[in-house]
Amino acid sequence: MFREIKPQQLQENPFTMIGKDWLLITAGDKNKCNTMTASWGGVGVLWNQDVCTVYIRPQRYTKEFVDREKEFSICVMDASFRDALNLCGTKSGRDMDKIGACGFTVDYEGDTPYFDEARVVIVCEKLYAQELKPEHFLVPGYDERYYPDKDYHTMYVGRIKKVLVK
């Protein structure tokens, strides 16, 4: 079903993949995992390694899983899953079984969960995490615009371990 490629072989436009198609950030283990929709992130090279960055607000249940585990996955879904992505971005796994409600099939790369329904799966090992801080904004208004509740994202940098595509 999936085949592994090198990160440099990925044909998807990252701006479309992240900002338009959205991502599912998933972490956990074979006993329990959680996922959330994200539309902020990036791919690139840092510390001479291929990396992804993702951003998670403190109140998100998935953050507990990402903080606890060494790895997380990023899944890019086809447009037919837009309703499921909306659900995963607006409902909490604390209150419901989002994965079951969406009908996603959980599979694992080692111990890292991902979804068989994805068209692209990126498995990342966490390298770095840091909370965004208001004093570091260089453009006036961004703090007030994006953080009126002062619930600053944590930025995670993950080394790309594996890219799977259909």
* Proportion of beta-strand residues: 35-45%
Order of helices and strands: EHEEEEHEHHEEEHE
| Class inferred from helices and paired strands | alpha+beta
- End-to-end separation in angstroms reads 6 Å
Q: Outline the low-pLDDT stretches.
A: none
Helix content: 10-25%
What is the mean pLDDT?
97
Please report the total strand number as a whole number.
10
For the sheet with most strands, the description reads: 8 strands, antiparallel
Number of distinct helices: 5
Question: Whole-number radius of gyration?
Answer: 15 Å
What characteristic shape results from the CA principal axes? globular
List the helices and strands and how they pair.
Blueprint: E1 3-5, H1 14-20, E2 23-28, E3 33-38, E4 41-46, E5 49-56, H2 61-68, E6 71-76, H3 82-90, H4 98-102, E7 106-109, E8 112-115, E9 120-131, H5 142-146, E10 154-165
Antiparallel strand pairs: 1-10, 2-3, 2-6, 4-5, 5-10, 6-9, 7-8, 9-10
